[in-house]
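Narrative of accomplishments. A recurring question from our advisory board has been how the design workflow behaves on a single, concrete structure rather than in aggregate. To address it, we present the structure tokens for one chain from the evaluation set, followed by the sequence designed for it. No filtering or post-editing was applied between the two.
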């Protein structure tokens, strides 16, 4: 650091500030420090800094799957906000397994993270015990409900399911199904399914079924699920899907079978992924504001790290959801 300061012609404390919080240094000084770092090949020793401060500049973020596009937007916005304050994200994925999540949490805590971010509210007893004893700020994201470990940012998944059911009922659909995948592990998708059925039954449908595929939520799974749904419910006229990939697979299968969408079957997804607006027909879906979840999680983390943790209801942030109506319904 002394070598960088000498080459950049600034004080060592300015270099230290730049490494911790680049925006706090003037643009001119920041450019000179960046040039010096590049010229010298300097890499800060974050472990040594963590030992000195009793916590590192790393925030551990654990998601169910790095293959799931839903979490990419959230992690990206979370990282952008944290990097601006001198923090880095350490990303892990649990593959929807509570034991794997607990192992990731145990490893993360061994590195004295500045904060831990988990996905959802369903964790093993061991994970909850580890985090409650750690004293580290914890944010659970993508779900709201009772008894968060520390802080929570997200939305109600049963309410998302209810929104989907109300929309299909409003279109005159009465023979309904919820198509989902891996719901034995994906508790949030299962909650959307239960919210869908509970709300649909208020409209006295002729039929309302939940159909689950045991594997991953993919386009292929959507095709398989629609086939199963039509075998069980030949007069099916409305489906909600646990995500847009499954909805796209169902849409493709309808096209292969010559089933008109939405005339014969209305299809509704979840996630508002990039293809949803441009597929044919365009896909009605529910948007969960993944970028806002990331920004709000970062805000809660930084407030806690800076000694201003939110109190009471301010520890829970409801980011809501939005129905995006398109041609498929």
């Amino acid at each position: 650091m002394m070598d960088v300061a000498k080459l950049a012609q600034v004080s060592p404390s300015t270099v230290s500030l730049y490494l911790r919080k680049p925006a706090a240094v003037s643009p001119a000084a920041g450019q000179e420090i960046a040039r010096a770092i590049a010229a010298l090949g300097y890499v800060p020793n974050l472990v040594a800094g963590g030992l000195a401060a009793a916590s590192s500049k790393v925030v551990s973020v654990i998601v169910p799957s790095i293959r799931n596009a839903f979490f990419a937007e959230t992690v990206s916005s979370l990282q952008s906000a944290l990097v601006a304050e001198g923090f880095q994200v350490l990303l892990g994925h649990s593959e929807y397994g509570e034991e794997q999540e607990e192992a990731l949490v145990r490893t993360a805590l061994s590195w004295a993270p500045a904060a831990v971010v988990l996905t959802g509210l369903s964790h093993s007893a061991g994970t909850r015990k580890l985090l409650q004893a750690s004293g580290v700020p914890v944010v659970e994201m993508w779900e709201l409900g009772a008894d968060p470990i520390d802080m929570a940012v997200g939305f109600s998944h049963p309410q998302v399911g209810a929104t989907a059911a109300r929309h299909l009922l409003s279109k005159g659909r009465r023979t309904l199904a919820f198509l989902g995948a891996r719901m034995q592990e994906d508790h949030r998708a299962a909650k959307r399914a239960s919210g869908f059925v509970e709300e649909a039954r208020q409209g006295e449908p002729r039929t309302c079924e939940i159909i689950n595929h045991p594997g991953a939520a993919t386009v292929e799974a959507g095709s398989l699920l629609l086939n199963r749904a039509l075998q069980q419910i030949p007069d099916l006229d409305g489906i909600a899907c646990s995500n847009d990939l499954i909805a796209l697979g169902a849409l493709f299968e309808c096209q292969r079978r010559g089933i008109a969408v939405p005339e014969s079957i209305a299809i509704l997804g979840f996630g508002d992924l990039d293809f949803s607006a441009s597929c044919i027909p365009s896909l009605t879906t529910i948007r969960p504001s993944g970028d806002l979840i990331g920004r709000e999680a970062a805000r809660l983390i930084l407030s806690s790290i800076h000694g201003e943790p939110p109190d009471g209801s301010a520890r829970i942030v409801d980011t809501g959801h939005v129905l995006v109506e398109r041609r498929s319904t």
